[in-house]
Each structure stands twice: as C-alpha cells, then as structure tokens.
Design brief:
heterodimer, A: 259 residues, MetI-like fold, B: mainly alpha, 0% strand
Amino acid sequence: MKLKDTIHYNWYKHLFVVFLLLVCVLGSAALTEADFSEVFENADQIGIFMGRLAHPDFSYIPDILDPMVKTLKMSVVGTVIGVLFAVPFAFLATTTVTRNPVVTGIIRFFLDIIRTIPNLLLAALLVAVIGIGEATGVLTIAVFTFGMVSQLIYESIETIDYGPIEAAESVGANKVQIAVWAVAPQILAQIASYTFYAFEVNVRASTVLGYVGAGGIGVVLNSSLALLKYERVSIIILTILVVVAIVDTLSEMIRRRLA
Amino acid sequence: MERSTKVRQWLIAALTLAIILYCAAGLDYSGLAAFSPSMGMDVLSGLMKPNWGFVYDGSGEDLVSLLLLTIGIAFLGTAIATVLAIPVMLLSASNLWRSHPWVARVGKFVCNVLRAFPELVYAIIFVRVVGPGPFAGVLAIGVHQIGMLGKLYTEEMEAMDEEPVEAVRAAGGNFWQAMFYARVPQLMPIYTSLSLNHFEIAVRSASTLGLVGAGGIGAPLIFAIQARNWDQVSIILLGVILTVFLLDLLTGYIRKKLR
C-alpha cells in the first residue's frame, strides 16, 4: 500500500461516498414517508402483539403437524426436481463444457432472469395460472431451486481441475463424454452438498408460500394471522423454528461428511 | 472392504430414492386437474402484450414511481439494519468477550430470534404499529436484516486475522484503538460487500411485502394477478425483473471495485 492510497490523501473521495449515501438515505426516507416517532408512539402495539406471542397455544400442535410434514414433503420433491433440471443447464452455462460462448451466454442470461423473480411473486403467479394447491408449491420450489442451484453448480464447474478434461480430449472424447467422465466426477460431491443447502433454504421459504395459497404450513400461518389468533401464530412459528433447526443441523452434518 | 462400501453406497442411494418417492406420493395433486391448456394459452397471450400505458402516467401510482418506492424501502431498510447490526455484532462476537463468553451467547441468541420470524410476519406486525404504507415495509426489512447482517458480521469478526490486533495491543493500544486501527480496516470491505448483497435481497423482498399492505410494487401486482389482468401483470413483472437485474449489475460492479 502506497502512502497515496491512505485515507489522508483520498479523504475527498470518502467524503463524497458518505455524502452520496446520506442523500440516498434521506431520499428514500422522504419517499417512504418514514416517521420514526410513530414507532415509539405506537410501541404499545408491539407490546400487545409480543405479549400474545409469548403465550403459545400448545394444544394446537396436533393440528399443525400434518401441514408441517406436507411442507417438508413439498420441499423434498421441489428440491429434487429443481436440481435434476439444474444440472444439465449448469453444464451448458460453462464454456468448459460447451466451448461455445454464444450458447453459454444465452443460457446464463436465461438463468439470470429466472433468479431475479422473487419466489413469493413466482408462487402468486403460478397459483393464478395453475390454481391453489400443493402441486403449485412444489413447482414454485422447483423453479426457485433451479435458479439458485444452477448458478452454484456452474460456478463450481469453472473452478475444476482441467487435467482430466485434457486427458479425455486427447484420447478423442466428445463433449458429452467429457461432461460425464471428466467434469461430473469432480463436482458430484458439491452438487449433493448444494442440494442439501437448497433444501434448507426451501424449507424456510416454503413456510411463507402458503400465504398466496401454495399449500403447506404457510396456509395455516396465514389463516391464524388473518383471524388474529396470535397464540396460534406463535406456536406455528415455534414449530417452524424447531423444524428448520433440525433440518439445518441434519444437512450440515451430511454436508460436512460429503466435503 | 471394497465390497462393503459398495453395498453401503447402494443402500444410501436406495434409501434416498425411497424418501423422495414417499414424499412425492404423499402430496395432493388434485389442484393440477383444474388446469387446462387453453387457460394456460390465455395467460401466455396476455403476458405477451404488456400494458405499456402503465409505465409512467405521472399519477404517482405508475410503474416507475412504484419501483422507485420499492428501491427506497429496500435501501432505507438495509441502511437501518447496517447501522443497528454493528452494535449487535459487537455484542455477539466471541473474540471481543473472551473473559465473559456468556455476553456473546446472549448476542447470538438475539440474532437468531430476530432472524427466526419470516419478513412477512414482521411486515404484518409493523402494519399494525405504523399503519399500512411503505414505512411498515422499511421497518420489516430493517428488523429482519439486523438478524441476518448481525450474524454474518459476527462470523466475519470471529474469522478475522488477529495478528494486527495483537500488534496494536503489544504497542500499548487500548481496546478501541485496536478496534479502529486493526479491526475496522480489515472488516470494512467485507461488511460493505455483505450490506450490498443484502440490499439486493431486500429489493426482492420489498417487491413482495406489498402483499400485506407494506407498500411498494407488490400490492398492484397481486391485485392484477387476482383480477387476471395479464397485460398489467406482464408489465409489472418486466419492471421488477429489469430493476433487480440492473441493481444486481450495479452492486456487482461496486463489490468488484471493493476487492
């Protein structure tokens, strides 16, 4: 680091960044009509809400076990479908396999677009097109997983060892053979690890999918919120927490063994 | 040895397949029966004709102003979270509380609790506190991201290189001098990058929070979907995708410069 790079010689640049950030903060505060005094004035509302959340209705547990299991099943099926579609697309999205920047560019653009759609919007859209139900939730999770996992996989394909590819090429392997015999063995463990990671993310996400009618525990959460039964909301959130914690621990254990 | 590992691999594969099939069989696919190809075509043809008149009409209820509002919600939420995550991080980083490890444990617990609730639940709480509007969305994103950013900041703090800190301490610097001359310069770029990344995530969430009345582009989108007003849905989705895409490019560029 040169003396010229230190803050004493660049203070005007830093000041400009601070100024820019301040303008953005004030601008968005004006745009969103932020009024922090309101938060403190109505703090008793938070108190009431928290007070009712602090008394979970444990007798409601038997009623939410079934939707919770449904949520887990939806996540499993959605994740598996998403990963199955993600693998071939991830292979096409690297020049390592395709040797064709145009194909790779088009595929990557397509994947980028899929990833930009927030999953709740995707669920709302699919509910409108296909209809309310668990199948819609599975489809949403599948599309969401597809976008997320394909990026993770193609990024890991780009970091593999090129030795086996050259070896396969020198004995006359074609592109498919290279993908199957030289690339896939190097990233199989990572794909499995990403699958579990995606499953974790999906279990968390699928809890709110029910809000738009895509099945699972979110439906129960939504109806309890709508009926202002916060004792039930509280027990539902607790259940989700416990299940997510269990899934996190399990998947971390498996991922550590795979790594 | 060789044989037994092979048997184990087959057993694991069979078990995985059995779990997937069990989950797939346990779902309710009756929702799919209501779907008809002609309905799908109807949706598609509607989506192909975006309602360009909605882009800007100067009423403040058009696409451009709503997207700006959504970005404002995300920006202010992330800004609040970034500022408030720093004290949380100072509380929960275990390398700052070597003599009192329980403080760090309390801090981490606070982070976990804040992260536990889905953003949608926060949005519902804050809609009751400050009334429906974009400010409720700001608060929901802010509070949720304190937990997220607090956890990530803490992890970076705990994983940082302690040598510069020791050097400052050895030269007689106190805790705060070590903080500002050894820790902050090392962590600043990573923290900025994490905050930018969460700004991207916040833009996606902000576009869905409108579902519960917390402002932004979400509400008009949901109304359009429910009214099956596909030309409107199409233009809003285009707007959201374009916004998220451009912001991702921008934050990606800034993050590359930080490295």
